[in-house]
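Quick start: what a row looks like.
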Amino acid sequence: MKRALLITLNEVRLYLQDKGDLAFSLLLPIVTFALIYGAFGGQTLFKATASVVNEDNGIYSTQLIEQLDKVNGINIELITLAQAMDKLDKSDLLLVLDIPAGFSATLATGGKAQLVFLQRGNGGQEGQILASIIRGIAEEMNTAFRVNSQVKSNLLGTGITEDRIDVTVSQLLEDERQKPALGVTEEVVGGIGDIVNQYLPGIVTMYVLFALTMSAQVIVEERRKGTLERLLTTRLSAGELFFGKYLAAIARGFVQTLILFTLSYAVFQMFTPITFLESLFIVLVFTAAASALGLIIASIARTADAANWIGVVFTMFMVMLGGTFFQVEPGSILYTLGRVSINTYANEALRTVIAEGGSLGDTMVPLGIFVGVAVIALIISRLLFKAVPGGK
């Protein structure tokens, strides 16, 4: 047992010293998660730049631009009409707001002014959203004009000056904007926490399998070079060599998981101390089962390339059926097929603990499956394990 542990410690030391292995095992999972988070877990706030041609430069055009600039996520870009037409022609812009000359004067005299949208095609999705926001601001201004006109009409002959009416109505409307009688709040569903909970378990289990593929590849290469045969010329037995390689594979996958979970805990605060330890235990048992399967690959493959391809196909099969990147509908054919993937049970167990507030007691079925897979796979791989081609 002691000699097997020495092999394990040596394998882990070599793993930590190999910059290529570390980059693949640690940096690649982090980059993968960052890309998925960027694609599906980004900001929910709409952000855009509104290009505006202000040919009026009057009080009401300025007011319109100021109101638009107050909208969260929108930046204002003032350009000339010539610049707008040039950018639209080159498709650098898809929609421009044109405030025509005389806009403010027309409104001041009680006339009906028009805003113009210069757009290429349908203006694009972003342009359509901007146009909708601008129409909303224009409608607010139009409501203010109607209220002001109605108040003046009702107070006609009372001796109250129009300037006082304008100031009072403007103040009341501003108060209403700040504290509306009917407010709207946003409740984000499927935000940062859900994205992390959904994808992190699958990414962790996927790269544990990839790491074990690399371990299988190393064992095959050592067999080809005669390294395993030379080890057996010492007092080390085949069983101790086999068990040392098995423990090394578990340690390798566990070290990778520990670093990823620690980073997730620091960045997203997704664990409590208890769930952190429970998640590590689940992954440790899962890694033990996956390592045993990895030894089967190492035992049957005759070349490093064969071990690599068998491992990649095996990993992707387990990942796709395990619901790593998408939710599998219960009762579907894919859901039924997914019951043969150990990733399915690992992902379910981790989400039970991390996202659903469960405990290890709620994951007894997955843990039992991992133990069963580990025992059966270890027996099979030990029967197949050979230090040299044709040897035992």
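That is the whole record. DSSP finds 15 helices and four strands in the chain. Strands lie at 48-54, 74-78, 95-99, 116-119.
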